[in-house]
Amino acid sequence: MKPIKSICVYCGSGFGGDPIFTENAAALGRSMAEQGINLVYGGGNVGLMGTVAQSVLDHGGYVTGIIPDFLKSREKLLDDVQETIVVPDMHTRKRLMFEKADAFVALPGGIGTLEELVEQMTWSQLGRHTKPILMLSTKGFWKPLLTLIAHMREQGFIRPGLELNYLVAERVEEVIPMMEAAARRVGIVSNEEAIESQF
Hints:
By secondary structure, the protein is α/β, with parallel strands linked by helices. It has 8 helices and 7 strands. The protein has a 7-stranded parallel beta sheet with strand order 4-3-2-1-5-6-7, with helices on both faces. Helix 6 (143-154) links the parallel strand 6 (133-136) and strand 7. Helix 1 (19-34) packs parallel to helix 2 (47-58). The radius of gyration is 16 Å and the shape is globular. One of its GO terms (biological process) is cytokinin biosynthetic process.
Protein backbone atom coordinates (compact mmCIF):
# COMPACT_ATOMS: atom_id res chain seq x y z
CA MET A 1 0.00 0.00 0.00
CA LYS A 2 1.31 3.42 -0.95
CA PRO A 3 1.33 5.71 2.08
CA ILE A 4 0.28 8.74 0.00
CA LYS A 5 -2.71 8.51 -2.34
CA SER A 6 -3.31 12.25 -2.85
CA ILE A 7 -1.20 15.40 -2.69
CA CYS A 8 -2.46 18.95 -2.32
CA VAL A 9 -0.25 21.26 -4.38
CA TYR A 10 -0.07 24.95 -3.50
CA CYS A 11 1.49 27.16 -6.18
CA GLY A 12 1.23 30.41 -8.08
CA SER A 13 -1.58 31.47 -10.39
CA GLY A 14 1.24 33.09 -12.41
CA PHE A 15 4.27 31.47 -14.04
CA GLY A 16 7.03 33.45 -12.32
CA GLY A 17 10.14 34.78 -13.99
CA ASP A 18 11.98 31.56 -14.83
CA PRO A 19 10.82 28.76 -17.17
CA ILE A 20 12.17 26.18 -14.69
CA PHE A 21 9.19 26.88 -12.43
CA THR A 22 6.78 25.75 -15.16
CA GLU A 23 8.99 22.81 -16.13
CA ASN A 24 9.04 21.58 -12.54
CA ALA A 25 5.27 21.99 -12.13
CA ALA A 26 4.75 19.87 -15.25
CA ALA A 27 7.31 17.29 -14.08
CA LEU A 28 5.64 16.98 -10.67
CA GLY A 29 2.24 16.48 -12.30
CA ARG A 30 3.63 13.77 -14.57
CA SER A 31 5.33 12.03 -11.66
CA MET A 32 2.15 12.07 -9.57
CA ALA A 33 0.06 10.62 -12.40
CA GLU A 34 2.60 7.91 -13.21
CA GLN A 35 2.68 6.85 -9.56
CA GLY A 36 -1.10 6.85 -9.17
CA ILE A 37 -1.20 9.83 -6.80
CA ASN A 38 -4.23 12.10 -7.14
CA LEU A 39 -3.90 15.88 -7.28
CA VAL A 40 -5.90 18.17 -5.01
CA TYR A 41 -5.51 21.82 -5.97
CA GLY A 42 -7.18 25.22 -6.23
CA GLY A 43 -9.18 24.49 -9.37
CA GLY A 44 -7.90 27.11 -11.83
CA ASN A 45 -6.21 26.67 -15.22
CA VAL A 46 -3.81 29.63 -14.94
CA GLY A 47 -0.11 29.78 -14.06
CA LEU A 48 1.71 26.97 -12.29
CA MET A 49 -1.63 25.86 -10.84
CA GLY A 50 -2.99 25.11 -14.31
CA THR A 51 0.32 23.60 -15.43
CA VAL A 52 0.50 20.98 -12.70
CA ALA A 53 -3.17 20.03 -13.13
CA GLN A 54 -2.95 19.76 -16.91
CA SER A 55 0.18 17.62 -16.60
CA VAL A 56 -1.57 15.20 -14.22
CA LEU A 57 -4.46 14.93 -16.69
CA ASP A 58 -2.17 14.55 -19.72
CA HIS A 59 -0.51 11.55 -18.07
CA GLY A 60 -3.73 9.80 -17.06
CA GLY A 61 -4.00 11.00 -13.45
CA TYR A 62 -6.96 12.09 -11.35
CA VAL A 63 -7.53 15.74 -10.39
CA THR A 64 -9.80 17.32 -7.79
CA GLY A 65 -10.14 21.08 -8.14
CA ILE A 66 -11.65 23.11 -5.31
CA ILE A 67 -12.45 26.73 -6.10
CA PRO A 68 -14.47 29.48 -4.41
CA ASP A 69 -17.39 30.83 -6.39
CA PHE A 70 -15.90 34.34 -6.61
CA LEU A 71 -12.69 33.05 -8.26
CA LYS A 72 -14.37 30.98 -10.99
CA SER A 73 -14.10 33.69 -13.63
CA ARG A 74 -10.72 35.08 -12.55
CA GLU A 75 -8.86 31.77 -12.33
CA LYS A 76 -10.87 30.08 -15.11
CA LEU A 77 -11.96 26.57 -14.18
CA LEU A 78 -10.03 23.74 -15.81
CA ASP A 79 -12.90 21.90 -17.49
CA ASP A 80 -11.19 18.54 -18.01
CA VAL A 81 -10.69 17.65 -14.35
CA GLN A 82 -12.58 14.64 -13.02
CA GLU A 83 -13.90 16.43 -9.93
CA THR A 84 -14.61 20.13 -9.45
CA ILE A 85 -15.99 21.39 -6.17
CA VAL A 86 -17.26 24.98 -6.05
CA VAL A 87 -17.37 26.31 -2.50
CA PRO A 88 -18.72 29.55 -1.01
CA ASP A 89 -15.48 30.93 0.45
CA MET A 90 -11.73 30.52 0.95
CA HIS A 91 -12.08 28.93 4.38
CA THR A 92 -14.20 26.09 3.01
CA ARG A 93 -11.78 25.65 0.12
CA LYS A 94 -8.79 25.27 2.45
CA ARG A 95 -10.59 22.90 4.80
CA LEU A 96 -11.67 20.63 1.92
CA MET A 97 -8.18 20.69 0.38
CA PHE A 98 -6.82 19.62 3.76
CA GLU A 99 -9.37 16.84 4.18
CA LYS A 100 -8.86 15.39 0.69
CA ALA A 101 -5.03 15.35 0.78
CA ASP A 102 -2.52 12.99 2.41
CA ALA A 103 0.36 15.46 1.96
CA PHE A 104 1.12 19.03 0.89
CA VAL A 105 3.64 20.45 -1.58
CA ALA A 106 4.37 24.14 -2.01
CA LEU A 107 5.83 25.11 -5.39
CA PRO A 108 6.92 28.70 -6.01
CA GLY A 109 4.07 31.18 -5.71
CA GLY A 110 2.90 34.41 -4.17
CA ILE A 111 1.31 35.48 -0.92
CA GLY A 112 -1.61 33.05 -1.27
CA THR A 113 0.76 30.10 -1.67
CA LEU A 114 2.75 31.29 1.34
CA GLU A 115 -0.41 31.66 3.43
CA GLU A 116 -1.63 28.13 2.61
CA LEU A 117 1.80 26.62 3.29
CA VAL A 118 2.21 28.40 6.63
CA GLU A 119 -1.31 27.44 7.70
CA GLN A 120 -0.52 23.75 7.24
CA MET A 121 2.75 24.18 9.13
CA THR A 122 0.80 25.85 11.96
CA TRP A 123 -1.83 23.11 12.11
CA SER A 124 0.94 20.51 12.21
CA GLN A 125 2.81 22.42 14.94
CA LEU A 126 -0.41 22.48 17.00
CA GLY A 127 -0.83 18.71 16.63
CA ARG A 128 -3.78 18.79 14.22
CA HIS A 129 -2.19 16.46 11.67
CA THR A 130 0.96 14.54 10.75
CA LYS A 131 0.64 14.84 6.98
CA PRO A 132 3.97 15.58 5.25
CA ILE A 133 4.54 19.20 4.20
CA LEU A 134 7.22 19.86 1.58
CA MET A 135 8.61 22.97 -0.08
CA LEU A 136 10.06 22.49 -3.55
CA SER A 137 12.75 25.14 -3.38
CA THR A 138 13.49 25.50 -7.08
CA LYS A 139 16.52 27.77 -7.53
CA GLY A 140 16.44 28.47 -3.79
CA PHE A 141 12.94 29.98 -3.99
CA TRP A 142 12.00 29.19 -0.37
CA LYS A 143 15.40 30.09 1.10
CA PRO A 144 14.23 33.49 2.49
CA LEU A 145 11.37 31.76 4.34
CA LEU A 146 13.75 29.15 5.75
CA THR A 147 16.02 31.97 6.92
CA LEU A 148 13.05 33.66 8.62
CA ILE A 149 12.06 30.39 10.34
CA ALA A 150 15.64 29.99 11.60
CA HIS A 151 15.50 33.59 12.88
CA MET A 152 12.22 32.88 14.72
CA ARG A 153 13.84 29.84 16.32
CA GLU A 154 16.94 31.82 17.34
CA GLN A 155 14.76 34.54 18.87
CA GLY A 156 12.84 32.01 20.96
CA PHE A 157 9.51 32.14 19.13
CA ILE A 158 9.73 28.57 17.83
CA ARG A 159 10.44 26.73 21.06
CA PRO A 160 11.52 23.15 21.81
CA GLY A 161 8.45 20.93 21.74
CA LEU A 162 6.78 23.24 19.21
CA GLU A 163 9.14 22.55 16.32
CA LEU A 164 7.91 22.93 12.76
CA ASN A 165 7.61 19.79 10.67
CA TYR A 166 8.49 20.35 7.04
CA LEU A 167 10.64 18.95 4.26
CA VAL A 168 12.63 20.84 1.65
CA ALA A 169 13.48 19.40 -1.78
CA GLU A 170 15.75 21.08 -4.30
CA ARG A 171 14.85 18.79 -7.20
CA VAL A 172 11.42 17.69 -8.36
CA GLU A 173 12.52 14.02 -8.45
CA GLU A 174 12.99 14.13 -4.66
CA VAL A 175 9.47 15.31 -3.82
CA ILE A 176 7.44 12.08 -3.76
CA PRO A 177 10.17 9.81 -2.30
CA MET A 178 10.82 12.28 0.54
CA MET A 179 7.13 12.59 1.40
CA GLU A 180 6.52 8.85 1.23
CA ALA A 181 9.49 8.23 3.54
CA ALA A 182 8.11 10.79 6.02
CA ALA A 183 4.62 9.26 5.84
CA ARG A 184 6.00 5.78 6.54
CA ARG A 185 8.08 7.09 9.43
CA VAL A 186 5.38 9.02 11.32
CA GLY A 187 2.13 7.85 9.73
CA ILE A 188 -0.61 10.09 8.39
CA VAL A 189 -3.06 11.17 11.06
CA SER A 190 -5.72 13.83 10.73
CA ASN A 191 -8.05 12.64 13.48
CA GLU A 192 -7.85 15.41 16.07
CA GLU A 193 -8.80 13.20 19.04
CA ALA A 194 -6.21 10.58 18.09
CA ILE A 195 -3.51 13.21 17.77
CA GLU A 196 -4.38 15.05 20.95
CA SER A 197 -4.30 11.82 22.98
CA GLN A 198 -0.62 11.48 22.05
CA PHE A 199 0.37 14.89 23.50
